[in-house]
Amino acid sequence: MDASFTAEQDEIRRTLRELLRSRCGPEELRAAVDRPPGHDPALWAALAGQLGLPALALPERYGGVGCPFADLALACEETGRALAPSPLLATTVLAAPLLLALGTEAQRAGLLPRLAEGSLTAALAVPGPALATALALTGAAGGEWAGGEWAGGGRAGGVQARRAGTGWRLYGEVDQVLDGHSAALLLVAAHSGGFARSRTLIFLVRGDARGVTRARRTALDATRPQGRVQLREAEGELLGEEDADVLGALAAAGDQAATVLACEAVGAAGRALETTVEHVARREQFGRPIGSFQAVKHRLADVYVRLQSARSAAYYAAWASGRPEGATGTTGRPEGAPEGVAGTPGRPDGASDVDGGSAAPAGGGVGRVGGLALAQGLDALRCAAAEGIQLHGGIGFTWEHEAHLYFKRAAGDELLFGPAHRLRAHAADSARLFEGGEVTV
């Protein structure tokens, strides 16, 4: 696979890396996560105002740049490399696609331009520890996700919505909301209609609305700040129409989110490997650098192979996310893909068969492959971070060193969006690879 990029993509990545190198080093990162919102507002203003990251993949009619989604995913490889804490994932990757897919024209025109310029941040609130299930990344196909059981199923628990005059009132509690403690706008998934006619809808709730109580939670990965949201008869505005395909929109947003997360994981794994290689080249034992020992070389070579496999899968998922589900590859460079990614009928070059099977589903269609790419990215990041801690020796286990931050990113993302084996199992179940005990080919 030729992983060269267009001139525009190279410029975005170069500029973003320089900005994060100067504004989000280890010391700045630790200071940012200790702030009340969990990120540096000045850095977010620079990412939004100077580089326009929130606007990158939004349509121009709503204040966006109109670039392919692949450009945003590739840019997030750089934010993952620096473990940069920001509202980008919650606002641009999770909330904005739902507003674009489900919102009325008035809601889009009123909210998306503010999201694009970075003046408004948003968060997706899904009841319980079920974000990956709601985004159709894990869970049995046709089971709890298909019926929206993760949102409470019309029973006690979750978030319930009821009509109140011409509006809606929401009641319930949501844990583990990414940036839920600081986002100005909440997209809350809730059940309405009681038990007999229950359905899952999404509501727009202002963060400072009456009846909304929020608090930051202690999270394993401090670079992914989370909040607890309590709703007590809070006023909500229905996103779109009551007959909208909410579950389908969540699934589409989930595939794009998984692609971005895969690229972030690849960036983080690459940086973890770089710092480890630099250390073993300097650290001497028995009169020679420890990197010259064959056992160390083999361990780092294994990490490198995993990283390159995950990078290939992430780039393919970034290209596939811009194509209709079921579309097949074509010869030549796919639109929005890095230069040199030449497709072939049924399976574009560069699709990885390592640790997750072919990225393309049976039948030759592109389909939704973000979950598989994320599984490989999480595996690569966990491996790179674990080997980095081990090969750094005593300092790798200390709080002052940055090695543990990469391991916590891998573990935290697995808790929120995985784990990897469930991502693969759900992808296999959705593609019906194992029906009747046989592999479908």
TrEMBL record:
Write down the superkingdom of origin: Bacteria
Q: Cofactor(s) for this protein?
A: FAD
Short name of one Pfam family: Acyl-CoA_dh_1
Q: Acyl-CoA dehydrogenase/oxidase C-terminal domain: from which residue to which, for each copy?
A: 259-321
Specify the Acyl-CoA dehydrogenase/oxidase N-terminal domain's residue ranges: 6-118
InterPro entries with a match to the protein in the record = Acyl-CoA_Oxase/DH_mid-dom_sf, AcylCo_DH-like_C, AcylCo_DH/oxidase_C, AcylCoA_DH/ox_N, AcylCoA_DH/ox_N_sf, AcylCoA_DH/oxidase_NM_dom_sf
What terms describe the molecular function in GO for this protein? Answer: oxidoreductase activity
Comp. bias intervals (Low complexity): 349-361
Entry's family note = Belongs to the acyl-CoA dehydrogenase family.
Name by which UniProt lists this protein: Acyl-CoA dehydrogenase family protein
Species, as recorded = Streptomyces hintoniae
